[in-house]
Amino acid sequence: KQYLVQKSIELIALHSPVAGDLRNIIEILKASSDLERIADHIVNIANSFIELGNNKLPIKIHLLCVSLMDESYQFYTKTLIAIQENNLKFAYEIVKNWEKQPIVEEINKQVICSMKGEIITSEEAVELFNVIIHLEKIIDLIKNLSEGMIYKDSGIILD
């Protein structure tokens, strides 16, 4: 990351970039930070699963978590493809079509019910909630990558 910051400063100082160039530099710096944060969240998810260990989770919760992780991965893959191909239309679709997944609310509901029914412990519930929170943050960061691509190419800031 420090290397990118140094190179960005050199580009700005030595080459008098125009607005489009500045947007490109800014977005590269922001994207590198977002990717680093995504990696941190993935580590935290792994740590939560380590804490869960060999505990037998209810199958419905397990399947819902796997489904949410898969959706997150698909969203990430589509975003990287849009960036790689510089496909603004695809980036707009990603930003426009992504909404909070109803699966998150279903997982929360299932975890609470399982905890109330003493199927899982409160510690297991906390770890599952942590996984969900980290996945939601990853999804927000991925969406930021698409929004950044749009900003870089058009100067339009999406909110």
Question: What tags apply to this protein structure?
Answer:
elongated, about 160 residues, mainly alpha
Structure description:
- With 159 residues, this protein is mostly helical.
- It has 6 helices and no strands.
- Helix 5 runs antiparallel to helix 6 (122-154).
- It is elongated, with a radius of gyration of 19 Å.
- The two termini are 26 Å apart.
- The relative contact order is 0.16.
Shape: elongated
The fraction of residues assigned to DSSP E strands is: under 5%
Could you give a short account of the major beta sheet? none
Terminal-residue CA separation: 26 Å
Give the topology string: H per helix, E per strand. HHHHHH
Compute the gyration radius: what is it?
19 Å
Strand element count:
0
Give the averaged pLDDT, no decimals: 85
Structural class: mainly alpha
Question: What oligomeric assembly is this protein in?
Answer: single chain
Number of helices: 6
Q: Show unreliable segments.
A: none
> Helix proportion of residues, in percent?
over 70%
Short description:
With 159 residues, the chain is mainly alpha-helical. 83% of the residues lie in helices and 0% in strands.
Topology record:
Blueprint: H1 2-15, H2 19-52, H3 59-84, H4 88-97, H5 102-116, H6 122-154
Helix pairs in contact: 1-2, 2-6, 3-4, 3-5, 3-6, 4-6, 5-6
